[in-house]
Write the C-alpha coordinates for this entry.
Amino acid sequence: MKPTKAPAPESTLVDADTHMESFRQTRHNRRTELIEDYVELIADLIADRGEARQVDIAQRLGVAQPTVAKMLKRLAAEGLIQQRPYRGVFLTEAGAGLAEKSRERHQVVESFLCALGISPEIARVDAEGIEHHVSLETLNAFRDFLRKRE
Amino acid sequence: MKPTKAPAPESTLVDADTHMESFRQTRHNRRTELIEDYVELIADLIADRGEARQVDIAQRLGVAQPTVAKMLKRLAAEGLIQQRPYRGVFLTEAGAGLAEKSRERHQVVESFLCALGISPEIARVDAEGIEHHVSLETLNAFRDFLRKRE
DNA sequence: AGCAAATTATAGCCATTGCTATAATAACTC
DNA sequence: GAGTTATTATAGCAATGGCTATAATTTGCT
Protein backbone atom coordinates (compact mmCIF):
# COMPACT_ATOMS: atom_id res chain seq x y z
CA MET A 1 0.00 0.00 0.00
CA LYS A 2 2.42 2.67 1.12
CA PRO A 3 5.52 2.85 -1.12
CA THR A 4 8.34 1.68 1.16
CA LYS A 5 7.77 4.56 3.52
CA ALA A 6 5.07 6.90 4.72
CA PRO A 7 4.76 9.85 2.34
CA ALA A 8 5.73 12.66 4.67
CA PRO A 9 3.74 12.18 7.90
CA GLU A 10 1.66 15.33 7.83
CA SER A 11 -0.20 14.48 11.03
CA THR A 12 0.88 14.41 14.65
CA LEU A 13 1.77 10.75 14.44
CA VAL A 14 5.10 10.11 16.12
CA ASP A 15 7.35 7.08 16.24
CA ALA A 16 5.38 3.99 17.26
CA ASP A 17 7.74 2.95 20.06
CA THR A 18 7.74 6.44 21.54
CA HIS A 19 3.99 6.50 21.35
CA MET A 20 3.76 3.16 23.11
CA GLU A 21 6.18 4.22 25.80
CA SER A 22 4.09 7.27 26.65
CA PHE A 23 0.96 5.21 27.09
CA ARG A 24 2.75 2.55 29.10
CA GLN A 25 4.04 5.24 31.41
CA THR A 26 0.57 6.73 31.76
CA ARG A 27 -0.91 3.33 32.62
CA HIS A 28 1.80 2.79 35.17
CA ASN A 29 1.14 6.18 36.75
CA ARG A 30 -2.53 5.35 36.97
CA ARG A 31 -1.73 2.27 38.99
CA THR A 32 0.26 4.19 41.56
CA GLU A 33 -1.80 7.33 41.84
CA LEU A 34 -4.48 5.82 44.05
CA ILE A 35 -1.84 4.58 46.46
CA GLU A 36 -0.27 8.01 46.60
CA ASP A 37 -3.62 9.66 47.18
CA TYR A 38 -4.34 7.38 50.10
CA VAL A 39 -0.96 7.77 51.73
CA GLU A 40 -1.00 11.52 51.30
CA LEU A 41 -4.48 11.78 52.76
CA ILE A 42 -3.63 9.54 55.69
CA ALA A 43 -0.63 11.70 56.49
CA ASP A 44 -2.78 14.83 56.37
CA LEU A 45 -5.43 13.31 58.61
CA ILE A 46 -2.87 12.18 61.17
CA ALA A 47 -1.27 15.62 61.13
CA ASP A 48 -4.62 17.31 61.57
CA ARG A 49 -6.47 14.97 63.93
CA GLY A 50 -3.87 12.64 65.34
CA GLU A 51 -5.38 9.64 63.60
CA ALA A 52 -6.66 8.44 60.24
CA ARG A 53 -10.02 6.68 60.42
CA GLN A 54 -11.69 4.84 57.58
CA VAL A 55 -14.81 7.00 57.73
CA ASP A 56 -12.80 10.17 57.29
CA ILE A 57 -10.75 8.74 54.47
CA ALA A 58 -13.92 7.50 52.77
CA GLN A 59 -15.64 10.85 53.13
CA ARG A 60 -12.77 12.85 51.71
CA LEU A 61 -12.18 10.43 48.86
CA GLY A 62 -15.89 10.28 48.13
CA VAL A 63 -16.05 6.48 48.26
CA ALA A 64 -17.73 3.94 50.55
CA GLN A 65 -16.03 2.66 53.66
CA PRO A 66 -15.56 -0.94 52.47
CA THR A 67 -13.71 0.43 49.46
CA VAL A 68 -11.32 2.12 51.86
CA ALA A 69 -10.98 -1.03 53.95
CA LYS A 70 -9.99 -3.04 50.92
CA MET A 71 -7.45 -0.50 49.77
CA LEU A 72 -5.93 -0.24 53.25
CA LYS A 73 -5.25 -3.96 53.15
CA ARG A 74 -3.36 -3.39 49.95
CA LEU A 75 -1.38 -0.54 51.48
CA ALA A 76 -0.57 -2.72 54.46
CA ALA A 77 0.52 -5.55 52.17
CA GLU A 78 2.87 -3.13 50.46
CA GLY A 79 4.33 -2.06 53.76
CA LEU A 80 3.13 1.52 53.62
CA ILE A 81 0.82 1.46 56.62
CA GLN A 82 0.33 -0.52 59.78
CA GLN A 83 -3.12 -1.37 61.04
CA ARG A 84 -4.70 -3.04 64.02
CA PRO A 85 -8.25 -4.40 63.86
CA TYR A 86 -10.95 -1.81 64.49
CA ARG A 87 -8.35 0.88 64.87
CA GLY A 88 -7.03 3.75 62.83
CA VAL A 89 -4.00 3.29 60.61
CA PHE A 90 -0.44 4.51 60.98
CA LEU A 91 2.14 5.17 58.30
CA THR A 92 5.29 3.11 58.25
CA GLU A 93 8.56 4.83 57.55
CA ALA A 94 8.18 3.96 53.87
CA GLY A 95 4.62 5.25 53.88
CA ALA A 96 5.59 8.51 55.54
CA GLY A 97 8.33 9.00 52.99
CA LEU A 98 6.00 8.48 50.08
CA ALA A 99 3.42 10.75 51.67
CA GLU A 100 5.91 13.54 52.10
CA LYS A 101 7.08 13.21 48.51
CA SER A 102 3.51 13.26 47.23
CA ARG A 103 2.49 16.15 49.42
CA GLU A 104 5.39 18.27 48.25
CA ARG A 105 4.75 17.47 44.60
CA HIS A 106 1.07 18.22 45.00
CA GLN A 107 1.93 21.53 46.58
CA VAL A 108 4.26 22.52 43.76
CA VAL A 109 1.72 21.67 41.09
CA GLU A 110 -1.09 23.53 42.82
CA SER A 111 1.05 26.58 43.48
CA PHE A 112 2.24 26.54 39.91
CA LEU A 113 -1.30 26.54 38.57
CA CYS A 114 -2.24 29.39 40.86
CA ALA A 115 0.82 31.33 39.72
CA LEU A 116 -0.49 31.01 36.18
CA GLY A 117 -3.56 32.88 37.29
CA ILE A 118 -5.90 29.92 37.62
CA SER A 119 -8.52 30.22 40.32
CA PRO A 120 -7.76 28.36 43.55
CA GLU A 121 -10.71 25.98 43.32
CA ILE A 122 -9.92 24.92 39.78
CA ALA A 123 -6.24 24.71 40.62
CA ARG A 124 -7.11 22.33 43.44
CA VAL A 125 -9.11 20.00 41.24
CA ASP A 126 -6.70 20.04 38.32
CA ALA A 127 -3.68 19.57 40.57
CA GLU A 128 -5.30 16.49 42.05
CA GLY A 129 -5.39 14.93 38.60
CA ILE A 130 -2.16 16.32 37.21
CA GLU A 131 0.24 15.67 40.05
CA HIS A 132 0.55 11.97 39.35
CA HIS A 133 1.65 12.50 35.78
CA VAL A 134 4.38 15.00 36.40
CA SER A 135 7.93 13.77 35.91
CA LEU A 136 10.82 15.05 37.98
CA GLU A 137 12.00 17.21 35.09
CA THR A 138 8.60 18.84 34.75
CA LEU A 139 8.32 19.29 38.49
CA ASN A 140 11.63 21.08 38.50
CA ALA A 141 10.50 23.29 35.66
CA PHE A 142 7.47 24.22 37.75
CA ARG A 143 9.73 25.00 40.69
CA ASP A 144 11.93 27.19 38.52
CA PHE A 145 8.93 29.06 37.26
CA LEU A 146 7.72 29.68 40.80
CA ARG A 147 11.12 30.85 41.93
CA LYS A 148 11.48 33.31 39.06
CA ARG A 149 7.99 34.58 39.65
CA GLU A 150 8.75 35.95 43.05
CA MET B 1 -9.40 12.56 72.42
CA LYS B 2 -9.33 15.88 70.66
CA PRO B 3 -10.65 18.76 72.81
CA THR B 4 -13.89 19.81 71.09
CA LYS B 5 -12.09 21.03 68.02
CA ALA B 6 -8.92 20.48 66.06
CA PRO B 7 -6.14 22.68 67.45
CA ALA B 8 -5.52 24.99 64.49
CA PRO B 9 -5.31 22.89 61.31
CA GLU B 10 -1.64 23.33 60.55
CA SER B 11 -1.66 20.86 57.70
CA THR B 12 -2.85 21.03 54.10
CA LEU B 13 -6.22 19.56 54.98
CA VAL B 14 -8.97 21.41 53.15
CA ASP B 15 -12.72 21.31 53.43
CA ALA B 16 -13.99 17.74 53.21
CA ASP B 17 -16.54 18.40 50.46
CA THR B 18 -13.99 20.21 48.34
CA HIS B 19 -11.59 17.38 48.84
CA MET B 20 -14.21 14.85 47.81
CA GLU B 21 -15.16 16.84 44.74
CA SER B 22 -11.58 16.89 43.49
CA PHE B 23 -11.28 13.13 43.78
CA ARG B 24 -14.64 12.55 42.17
CA GLN B 25 -13.59 14.71 39.26
CA THR B 26 -10.33 12.83 38.94
CA ARG B 27 -12.12 9.49 38.91
CA HIS B 28 -14.49 10.77 36.28
CA ASN B 29 -11.61 11.96 34.12
CA ARG B 30 -10.01 8.55 34.39
CA ARG B 31 -13.09 6.96 32.91
CA THR B 32 -13.06 9.19 29.85
CA GLU B 33 -9.36 9.43 29.19
CA LEU B 34 -9.02 6.02 27.58
CA ILE B 35 -11.83 6.84 25.19
CA GLU B 36 -10.16 10.10 24.25
CA ASP B 37 -6.85 8.37 23.70
CA TYR B 38 -8.41 5.87 21.35
CA VAL B 39 -10.37 8.40 19.34
CA GLU B 40 -7.40 10.71 19.05
CA LEU B 41 -5.15 7.88 17.93
CA ILE B 42 -7.69 6.61 15.42
CA ALA B 43 -7.95 10.07 13.90
CA ASP B 44 -4.17 10.31 13.65
CA LEU B 45 -3.89 6.90 12.02
CA ILE B 46 -6.58 7.69 9.49
CA ALA B 47 -4.92 11.01 8.69
CA ASP B 48 -1.54 9.36 8.28
CA ARG B 49 -2.40 6.05 6.61
CA GLY B 50 -5.97 6.38 5.42
CA GLU B 51 -7.20 3.74 7.84
CA ALA B 52 -7.03 2.69 11.48
CA ARG B 53 -6.32 -0.99 11.99
CA GLN B 54 -6.45 -2.81 15.29
CA VAL B 55 -2.85 -3.99 15.03
CA ASP B 56 -1.60 -0.44 14.65
CA ILE B 57 -3.74 0.85 17.47
CA ALA B 58 -2.56 -1.99 19.68
CA GLN B 59 1.07 -1.40 18.86
CA ARG B 60 0.98 2.31 19.57
CA LEU B 61 -1.01 1.89 22.75
CA GLY B 62 1.23 -0.94 23.89
CA VAL B 63 -1.62 -3.37 24.51
CA ALA B 64 -2.75 -6.64 22.93
CA GLN B 65 -5.09 -6.72 19.97
CA PRO B 66 -8.08 -8.27 21.78
CA THR B 67 -7.90 -5.42 24.26
CA VAL B 68 -8.30 -3.03 21.36
CA ALA B 69 -11.13 -5.07 19.87
CA LYS B 70 -13.05 -4.92 23.12
CA MET B 71 -12.56 -1.20 23.49
CA LEU B 72 -13.61 -0.55 19.91
CA LYS B 73 -16.91 -2.23 20.65
CA ARG B 74 -17.38 0.21 23.46
CA LEU B 75 -16.54 3.16 21.22
CA ALA B 76 -19.00 1.87 18.63
CA ALA B 77 -21.67 1.48 21.31
CA GLU B 78 -21.11 5.10 22.29
CA GLY B 79 -21.49 6.21 18.69
CA LEU B 80 -17.95 7.45 18.27
CA ILE B 81 -16.81 5.03 15.59
CA GLN B 82 -18.32 2.83 12.94
CA GLN B 83 -16.94 -0.59 12.23
CA ARG B 84 -17.51 -3.41 9.81
CA PRO B 85 -16.35 -6.96 10.58
CA TYR B 86 -12.71 -7.63 9.80
CA ARG B 87 -12.25 -4.08 8.61
CA GLY B 88 -10.68 -0.91 9.90
CA VAL B 89 -12.73 1.59 11.85
CA PHE B 90 -14.05 5.02 10.90
CA LEU B 91 -14.90 7.94 13.10
CA THR B 92 -18.46 9.16 13.22
CA GLU B 93 -19.10 12.86 13.27
CA ALA B 94 -19.23 12.78 17.05
CA GLY B 95 -16.01 10.79 17.15
CA ALA B 96 -14.23 13.16 14.80
CA GLY B 97 -15.34 16.09 16.94
CA LEU B 98 -14.04 14.53 20.12
CA ALA B 99 -10.81 13.59 18.38
CA GLU B 100 -10.23 17.12 17.19
CA LYS B 101 -10.91 18.53 20.64
CA SER B 102 -8.53 16.03 22.24
CA ARG B 103 -5.85 16.56 19.65
CA GLU B 104 -5.92 20.31 20.10
CA ARG B 105 -5.81 20.05 23.88
CA HIS B 106 -2.97 17.58 23.70
CA GLN B 107 -1.09 19.93 21.44
CA VAL B 108 -1.54 22.88 23.77
CA VAL B 109 -0.34 20.92 26.79
CA GLU B 110 2.70 19.53 25.01
CA SER B 111 3.65 22.89 23.56
CA PHE B 112 3.22 24.50 26.94
CA LEU B 113 5.56 22.02 28.59
CA CYS B 114 8.12 22.56 25.88
CA ALA B 115 7.82 26.32 26.32
CA LEU B 116 8.72 25.81 29.98
CA GLY B 117 12.01 24.34 28.82
CA ILE B 118 11.13 20.70 29.28
CA SER B 119 12.77 18.31 26.84
CA PRO B 120 10.53 17.15 23.98
CA GLU B 121 10.56 13.46 24.95
CA ILE B 122 9.58 14.14 28.54
CA ALA B 123 7.02 16.70 27.42
CA ARG B 124 5.46 14.03 25.21
CA VAL B 125 5.14 11.51 28.01
CA ASP B 126 3.93 13.98 30.61
CA ALA B 127 1.45 15.58 28.22
CA GLU B 128 -0.06 12.18 27.54
CA GLY B 129 -0.88 11.85 31.21
CA ILE B 130 -1.69 15.45 32.00
CA GLU B 131 -3.99 16.35 29.11
CA HIS B 132 -6.96 14.51 30.51
CA HIS B 133 -6.88 16.37 33.79
CA VAL B 134 -6.72 19.87 32.43
CA SER B 135 -9.86 21.96 32.81
CA LEU B 136 -10.88 24.57 30.28
CA GLU B 137 -9.67 27.35 32.54
CA THR B 138 -6.25 25.78 32.89
CA LEU B 139 -6.08 25.09 29.18
CA ASN B 140 -6.78 28.73 28.49
CA ALA B 141 -4.09 29.74 30.95
CA PHE B 142 -1.67 27.54 29.01
CA ARG B 143 -2.76 29.20 25.78
CA ASP B 144 -2.25 32.65 27.26
CA PHE B 145 1.20 31.69 28.40
CA LEU B 146 2.11 30.44 24.95
CA ARG B 147 0.77 33.55 23.31
CA LYS B 148 2.73 35.89 25.58
CA ARG B 149 5.84 33.84 25.09
CA GLU B 150 6.07 34.62 21.41
C1' DA C 1 -22.18 -1.61 83.82
C1' DG C 2 -24.98 -1.80 80.08
C1' DC C 3 -27.25 -0.16 75.90
C1' DA C 4 -27.29 2.60 71.65
C1' DA C 5 -24.65 4.54 68.15
C1' DA C 6 -20.66 4.70 65.46
C1' DT C 7 -17.04 2.39 63.31
C1' DT C 8 -14.63 -1.43 61.15
C1' DA C 9 -14.58 -6.18 58.96
C1' DT C 10 -16.24 -9.33 55.74
C1' DA C 11 -18.97 -11.43 52.04
C1' DG C 12 -20.42 -11.15 47.63
C1' DC C 13 -21.69 -8.54 43.64
C1' DC C 14 -20.53 -5.64 39.24
C1' DA C 15 -17.83 -3.03 35.62
C1' DT C 16 -13.48 -2.04 33.63
C1' DT C 17 -9.29 -3.10 31.40
C1' DG C 18 -5.77 -5.93 30.79
C1' DC C 19 -4.17 -10.87 29.16
C1' DT C 20 -3.65 -15.67 26.29
C1' DA C 21 -5.40 -18.97 23.24
C1' DT C 22 -7.82 -19.99 19.35
C1' DA C 23 -11.27 -19.63 15.53
C1' DA C 24 -12.77 -17.04 11.52
C1' DT C 25 -11.85 -14.12 7.85
C1' DA C 26 -9.09 -11.15 4.63
C1' DA C 27 -4.86 -10.23 2.10
C1' DC C 28 -0.88 -11.66 -0.34
C1' DT C 29 2.00 -14.63 -3.10
C1' DC C 30 2.94 -17.91 -6.31
C1' DG D 1 -7.15 -19.98 -7.59
C1' DA D 2 -4.99 -22.24 -3.76
C1' DG D 3 -2.30 -21.98 0.17
C1' DT D 4 0.23 -19.24 3.48
C1' DT D 5 0.29 -15.23 6.25
C1' DA D 6 -1.75 -11.44 8.54
C1' DT D 7 -5.56 -9.60 10.74
C1' DT D 8 -9.84 -9.60 13.35
C1' DA D 9 -13.36 -11.96 16.41
C1' DT D 10 -14.45 -14.47 20.36
C1' DA D 11 -14.01 -17.10 24.67
C1' DG D 12 -12.45 -17.20 29.07
C1' DC D 13 -9.32 -15.68 32.91
C1' DA D 14 -7.25 -12.23 36.38
C1' DA D 15 -6.57 -7.93 38.82
C1' DT D 16 -8.44 -3.57 40.16
C1' DG D 17 -11.63 -0.59 42.29
C1' DG D 18 -16.15 0.45 42.96
C1' DC D 19 -20.80 -0.92 45.48
C1' DT D 20 -24.54 -2.82 49.20
C1' DA D 21 -25.68 -5.55 53.01
C1' DT D 22 -24.55 -7.27 57.26
C1' DA D 23 -21.71 -8.98 61.20
C1' DA D 24 -18.37 -7.77 64.73
C1' DT D 25 -16.33 -4.51 67.67
C1' DT D 26 -15.48 -0.16 69.85
C1' DT D 27 -17.11 4.26 71.68
C1' DG D 28 -20.04 7.14 74.14
C1' DC D 29 -23.88 8.05 77.22
C1' DT D 30 -26.75 7.42 81.11
Summary: Strands of chain B lie at 81-83, 89-91. Residues 27, 53-55, 65-66, 68-69, 85-87 of chain B lie near DNA strand D (CB under 10 Å from a C1').
